Amino acid sequence: MAGYKEPGFQERVAAAARARDRAIEKLRSRPAVDEAELARRAAAAAAHEAAAAERRATARAEREAAVAAEAERLRAAAEAEAEAQRAATEAAEEAKLAAEAERKAARDARYAARKKRKN
């Protein structure tokens, strides 16, 4: 019974050359793609790319619209907050003026009572 014989360098080179020749022959034996098929594939690829570009543009426009809507919502919320702050400030100022008017009225009443007692 013969054991496994390691192929020599010349045998490996010859096997590689045969494999290369078979691969080249396989490529040469393929039928050539006709020009109409190439044009159809190119048109399909161009149409696919145009559709993808349209989808990207639509998605970008939607994102920009969403960002603009969010910015508008934040601006409106900030404006409402500022208006509420302004109203609260005005109410506090009016309350302060009313309290001051009450103190003045009370002071004037005390003054009038004192004058009345003196007379």
Give an account of the 3D structure.
The chain is mainly α and 119 residues long. Helix content is 88%, strand content 0%. The protein contains two helices and no strands. The N and C termini lie far apart (150 Å). The mean pLDDT is 93.
Structural key phrases:
119 residues; 2 helices; mainly alpha; rod-shaped
Please specify the SSE layout and strand pairing:
Layout: H1 9-29, H2 35-118
How would you concisely characterize the structure shown here?
The chain is 88% helix and 0% strand. The chain has 119 residues and is mostly helical.
**Ranges with pLDDT <50 over ≥5 residues?**
none
Mean pLDDT: 93
Class by helix and strand content? mainly alpha
Question: What is the 3D form?
Answer: rod-shaped
Strand content: under 5%
How large, in whole angstroms, is the Cα Rg? 47 Å
Number of beta strands:
0
Please report the distance between the alpha carbons of the first and last residues: 150 Å
Count of alpha/pi helices: 2
Largest sheet: none
Residues in helices, as a percent range: over 70%
Order of helices and strands: HH
